[in-house]
TrEMBL record:
Cofactor(s) this protein cannot do without: Zn(2+)
Name of the protein in its database record: Adenine deaminase
Site (Important for catalytic activity): residue numbering on this chain: 221
NCBIfam families: aden_deam, PRK09358.1-6
One Gene Ontology term, aspect cellular component: cytosol
Domain Adenosine deaminase, residue spans: 12-332
Broad enzyme group: hydrolase
Species per Swiss-Prot/TrEMBL record: Rhizorhabdus histidinilytica
Length: 340
């Protein structure tokens, strides 16, 4: 590993854009299929991995929802979460804010309770045994209707003290944020923070809607905001955090070439960009793979990578005391590395 790759790998960091269902590795998928006596339409781990070739978001979503079918019990969700946290801890992640898609499971007859309690048990164990703190973000599937989102929010009520925020994911184009304005209003009244995927494949207008109609506290992806100079300025001035996912962008053809990824431009424009893995089991890597993928282009130096890591805490839903503590550990790490 180069010195810069080594530096980046050891940087203390938070992960703010991670779909827990997207951390289901093929090996674990086969293991859960065996445990739950479910047939999966692939003969081997290699054959399954070979199917992970996508030319747009929907190609991925089709296989991702199919893969989630092996998740059936509280233990499955616990094991899924813990497997992610082990990998995250190995990547110097000390805090993670993870998405889950309850409708993917409740629509298959898996009770909300099974999903939430399993994930929360894994999160508690990760904090106790690995020292990784976490928050849970409930995502509504935007290809479904607003009534279904309201039903999901109602089902979540007993867990609201353990859910930090609501989010919006799945097929973006054709499902603008405006479709979910009322349910996001309700979530806000219930004291939940709000985030949304916008500007991944959808136009800058969807980012405007996420800001103006959903009142988001954080923007997931946001790449296409760069097409609108006034919007970019607004995001920069307001200190909005963007949870950017480089390897996801490459795999889903949001960017043509990783060396052409706009993250450096985002930083120079004053955007609070962060680096995240999105669906690491499907997109070729966890958070450090995403940070390291940005090195070969040669446009980011160690200070830029430290900024990206700082942004991950500044954009987190941690309280100010915890954020300051994490920023202090980054400062100490940078000082110890004696970077020029
Ligand atoms: N669900 C899981 N990953 C997603 C992504 N990158 N965009 C939209 N929905 C998703
Ligand atoms: Zn995502």
């Amino acid at each position: 590993m180069t010195d810069l790759a080594h530096f980046v790998s050891g940087l203390p960091k938070a992960e703010l854009h991670l779909h827990i269902e997207g951390s289901l590795e093929p090996e674990q998928m086969f293991e859960l299929a065996r445990r739950n006596r479910i047939a999966i339409p692939f003969a081997s781990v290699e054959e399954l991995r070979g199917a992970y070739s996508f030319s747009r978001l929907q190609d991925f979503l089709d296989i991702y929802y199919q893969g989630a079918d092996v998740l059936r019990t509280e233990e499955d969700f616990h094991d899924l979460a813990l497997a992610y946290f082990r990998r995250a801890a190995a990547d110097s992640v000390v805090h993670a804010e993870i998405f889950f898609d309850p409708q993917t499971h409740t629509d298959r007859g898996i009770p909300f309770q099974v999903v939430a309690d399993g994930l929360l048990a894994g999160m508690l164990e990760a904090e106790r045994d690995l020292g990784v703190t976490s928050r849970l973000i409930l995502c509504f599937l935007r290809h479904l209707d607003e009534d279904a989102a309201f039903e999901t929010l109602a089902a979540a009520e007993p867990w609201l003290d353990r859910i930090a925020a609501v989010g919006l994911d799945s097929s973006e184009v054709g499902h603008p944020p405006s479709k979910f304005r009322r349910v996001f209003d309700r979530a806000g009244e219930m004291g939940l923070l709000r985030v949304a995927h916008a500007g991944e494949e959808g136009p800058p207008a969807y980012v405007h809607e996420a800001l103006d109609l959903l009142h988001i506290d954080r923007l997931d992806h946001g790449n296409r905001a760069l097409e609108d100079a006034a919007l970019t300025t607004r995001l920069a001035r307001s200190g909005m955090t963007l949870t950017v996912c480089p390897l996801s962008n490459l795999k889903l053809c949001v960017v043509e070439d990783i060396d052409a990824h706009p993250i450096e431009r985002m930083l120079r424009l004053g955007l609070r960009a962060t680096v995240n893995s999105d669906d690491p089991a499907y997109f070729g890597g966890y958070v450090n793979d995403n940070y390291r993928a940005l090195i070969p282009a040669g446009r980011l130096d160690a200070h830029d990578f430290a900024t990206l890591a700082r942004n991950s805490f500044l954009g987190s839903f941690l309280d100010d005391v915890a954020v300051t503590r994490h920023l202090d550990t980054i400062d100490a790490y940078v000082a110890a590395a004696a970077i020029a």
